[in-house]
Design brief:
alpha/beta; single chain; seven-stranded mixed sheet
Length: 383
C-alpha cells in the first residue's frame, strides 16, 4: 500500500535528501523549503529511517483537510483511526507547527488535537492514553498552512541526527545530519584524506567514518515505528541484519581530527570509541594555524568560531587572517570548507571563496565557504 511521508531536514540539504530518497526507491518526491515529501510503502519508511544521513525525521501522513477554526481541526483529528496504530497504554505527545495560519494560539491547537486523540480512544477503548512530554511512545505532528491541516505520526521518534551513541557533548554542537550534508557538498569521497582541525566532539569524523565503512547511520538506535501496532517485525529484522552485514572492516582510514584544546580531543575520542570507530580515525591536539597537513592533498571541513559563538569581534579579526595565512603557506592541494554565519569571514581570511552554499544551522542562516588552495595562491577576496 502506498503511503504519504514527509522528511524534514536542515534548510539547504533538500537536494541531497531528494537524492537519498530517490536512491532508496521513493516515489512522487517533491522538495519544499525545509524538507521533502514522498510516497512509498512501510519498507521504504523503515529504510529511510535506517539509511538517511540528511533527514531529521520521517513523518507518516494520516490525515489531511481544510479548516476555518479550531473545531474543524478537532473533528479531523477525532476521526483518525488512532487505535489501529497504538494503544491507550502507550504515552503520546502532540507537536504543532504553522505557516501563515490565521489561528492565534498554537498551544490551544495542540490541546485540541490532544483532546481529539484522547476522546477517540475513550470512545473506542473506554480509556485514554497518557501524555509524556519528555519521552513519549508516539509523537503526533500537525502542520497548519493558511487553510489546510496535515496530521502525521512520527515514525522516527527521537530526531534522526541522534545516531544513538554520542556520550560527550560540546557547546554549540553541529548536528550530525548537517555535518553529513556539508561532507556531501564538499564532494569528499571515501579513500580521500579528510581533516577536521576543530573537531570538537568529533561529529564530522564520525559521519565520514560511517560513510567510508558503509555503516547505516540508524544502526545504533531505536525508532518510533517500532512502537506501532503496524510494525512488521520480521521485515525490520531482515533489513537491520542486511545493513549490519554491509559494514566494511578496515584497520585505518585516512580521516584525521585535531583541536587546539585537549579536552575537545578527549571528547572526540570518547564519542569515536562509543561509535566503535576509535581505531579507524587519527586524533591529535594541534592548533589549526600551526599544524601541518596529514596528506599531500585532501578535504578540510570545519565549523570555525563565528560571532554567535565567540562573541568578541577582536578575536575573530585576529583569528581569520592567521587562518588564511596558514592555508596559503601549508595547505596547497587541499579543498577547504568552512561553515559560518559570519559574512566577514571571507573578507578577513583574505582568500577568494570558490563557492558559497547557503545552509541553515538551526535557525541561523550560514554559508559553506569553499576554498581551493593552489600552490603560490595569494588571491584576495574583493572587499
Amino acid at each position: 500500500m502506498v503511503e504519504h511521508f514527509f522528511a524534514p531536514c536542515p534548510r539547504g540539504l533538500e537536494p541531497g535528501l531528494q537524492d537519498e530518497l530517490s536512491a532508496l526507491g521513493a516515489g512522487k518526491i517533491r522538495q519544499v523549503p525545509g524538507g521533502v515529501s514522498f510516497t512509498g510503502d512501510w519498507a521504504l519508511a523503515y529504510a529511510v529511517n535506517l539509511e538517511s544521513r540528511l533527514a531529521t525525521r520521517v513523518l507518516w501522513q494520516v490525515a489531511h483537510g481544510r479548516y476555518h477554526g479550531e473545531q474543524d481541526i478537532y473533528k479531523l483529528a477525532y476521526g483518525v483511526t488512532w487505535a489501529k496504530w497504538f494503544t491507550p497504554e502507550q504515552t503520546m505527545r502532540v507537536y504543532v507547527t504553522a505557516r501563515r495560519s490565521p489561528l492565534k494560539s498554537l498551544e490551544f491547537i495542540t490541546l485540541r488535537i490532544k483532546d481529539a486523540v484522547c476522546d477517540h480512544f475513550r470512545t473506542i477503548k473506554g480509556v485514554r492514553p497518557s501524555i509524556d512530554t519528555a519521552n513519549p511512545d508516539v509523537r503526533i505532528h500537525a502542520f497548519l498552512s493558511a487553510d489546510e491541516v496535515m496530521l502525521y505520526i512520527d515514525t522516527s521518534g527521537e530526531p534522526l541526527y541522534k545516531r544513538g551513541f554520542k556520550q560527550a557533548a560540546v557547546e554549540a554542537p553541529l548536528k550530525e545530519n548537517l555535518a553529513a550534508g556539508i561532507l556531501r557538498v564538499s564532494g569528499w569521497q571515501p579513500g580521500e584524506a579528510l581533516l577536521d582541525p576543530m573537531c570538537g566532539s568529533g561529529t564530522f569524523l564520525i559521519e565520514a567514518a560511517q560513510i567510508a565503512l558503509d555503516i547505516a547511520p540508524g544502526l545504533g538506535r531505536r525508532f518510533g515505528f517500532e512502537a506501532l501496532k503496524t510494525l512488521d517485525e520480521s521485515l525490520w529484522r531482515r533489513m537491520r541484519k542486511a545493513a549490519e552485514g554491509r559494514r566494511r572492516h578496515v584497520a585505518k582510514l585516512p580521516i584525521f581530527g585535531s583541536d587546539s584544546e585537549g579536552v575537545q580531543v578527549k571528547r572526540a575520542r570518547i564519542n569515536l570509541e562509543a561509535a566503535g570507530l576509535a581505531d579507524q580515525v587519527t586524533l591529535e591536539q594541534a592548533e589549526l594555524t600551526e599544524r601541518t597537513p596529514p596528506a599531500a592533498e585532501g578535504v578540510m571541513v570545519a565549523n570555525p568560531p563565528y560571532g554567535v559563538r565567540i562573541g568578541e569581534a577582536s578575536e575573530l579579526a585576529d583569528f581569520y587572517p592567521k587562518l588564511g595565512d596558514a592555508l596559503k603557506a601549508r595547505w596547497a592541494g587541499w579543498r577547504c570548507y568552512f561553515l559560518s554565519a559570519d559574512p566577514e569571514l571571507p573578507k578577513l581570511i583574505k582568500l577568494k571563496a570558490t563557492k558559497r552554499t547557503p545552509m541553515f544551522n538551526g535557525a541561523l542562516e550560514c554559508r559553506v565557504f569553499e576554498y581551493k588552495v593552489i600552490a603560490g595562491s595569494n588571491r584576495r577576496e574583493k572587499v
